[in-house]
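quick one before i forget lol
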Amino acid sequence: MKLDNAAKIYPAITGSELTGVFRISVHLANPVILPALVKATEETARVFPMFSVELCKGFFWYYLEYNGKPPRILADSGASRSQGP
């Protein structure tokens, strides 16, 4: 898949300080049901295939390649857990 000019430059400026990890934070009233979350993630990845790509380095430029894997689900480390207002 082709990348625009900003996406071609971005990998060159990333490093340990700028990792490119994006996080969404929400406070839920009920616990997450893991099997339901896994199923929803897999279905979302089928509808939006751009969630299942990885950035690869070519000879002259970077490009996105489909890998067929849904986004990973990881437990929060707990460092930012707090009760909301």
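fyi Strands lie at 53-57, 62-66.
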